User: Fold this.
Amino acid sequence: MSDSQQNIIIYNTADGKASVKLYAQDGMVWMNQNPLAELFDTSKQNIGQHIANILSKDWGFYYTTTLSLEKIRKGLEVYRQPFSDQDVENIRTRIDTLSKMMEEAPKSLAWRARAQVGPRVKWYNDVDEVERAEHLGDL
Assistant:
């Protein structure tokens, strides 16, 4: 991605040892696993596994994340301009890898019971009010 074509948000830790760069466009935020791995001093694989483990305990979070990953996959076509063909392929591959990790992670009993109900019953809380951090502007 060309930095000149992006709205970039940079988060630096207080100690200055790590920095996370986010790309924002039309209310969507795109982030790479590499800076997260650096921020938490771990590997990209551990970041993905940690996400899969969290989602294996909460069906609603898992379901919402699955829907979001599908939106990202579709969004790659709509917001393709700032991404190179290689970027798009990398994102798709990472979505596939994370999805596979999520599917393979052992699920808790509560997760499996909630999965039986599925989306027929609301699994999320409505947001009453949205607060935006001033430094994020109008994402």
Summary: The chain has one domain: 3-118. Residues 59-78 form the longest helix (20 residues). The radius of gyration is 17 Å. Helices lie at 33-39, 44-55, 59-78, 85-104, 109-117.
